[in-house]
Design a protein that fits this description.
β9 and β10 form a beta hairpin. This protein is mainly beta. Strands 4-5-6-7 form a 4-stranded antiparallel β-sheet, with no helix packed on it. It is globular and about 40 Å long. The chain contains no helices and 11 strands.
């Protein structure tokens, strides 16, 4: 195991850690990248709640603001998975899914989930 989640912190194998403003909702590791989705507060319009780190602890990226298919009062990212093609996929409350490059955070493609 290259990391663990403890009390809202991401702790790397080397002992370094990152504390998040919101609790960690989900994580996934793809190659040497750890993707973290935090449980952003419903009281704030917080759409940038996905982060990526190298397994060594180095910061890679934070999800950028982007155009969504539907806009709502709370469109935070809620899910992350690796699809059958080995791609990193993020889902949000506003019916948007994106494939993201796990190393750069660049959006590869986007589609409506409903």
């Amino acid at each position: 195991m290259t990391y663990k989640i403890e009390s809202g912190s991401l702790i790397f194998k080397n002992g370094e850690s990152v504390d998040f403003e919101y609790p960690v909702k989900k994580t996934v590791q793809i190659d040497d990248a750890i993707i973290v989705v935090t449980d952003a507060s419903k009281d704030k319009a917080h759409y940038q709640n996905v982060f990526a780190f190298k397994t060594s602890g180095d910061f890679l990226w934070r999800i950028n603001d982007m155009s969504l298919f539907y806009d709502g009062p709370w469109c935070a990212w809620i899910g992350v998975t690796i699809n059958k093609d080995g791609e990193l996929v993020l889902f949000n409350w506003c019916d948007t899914a994106v494939v993201v490059n796990p190393t750069t955070g660049e959006v590869v493609r986007t589609w409506v989930t409903k």
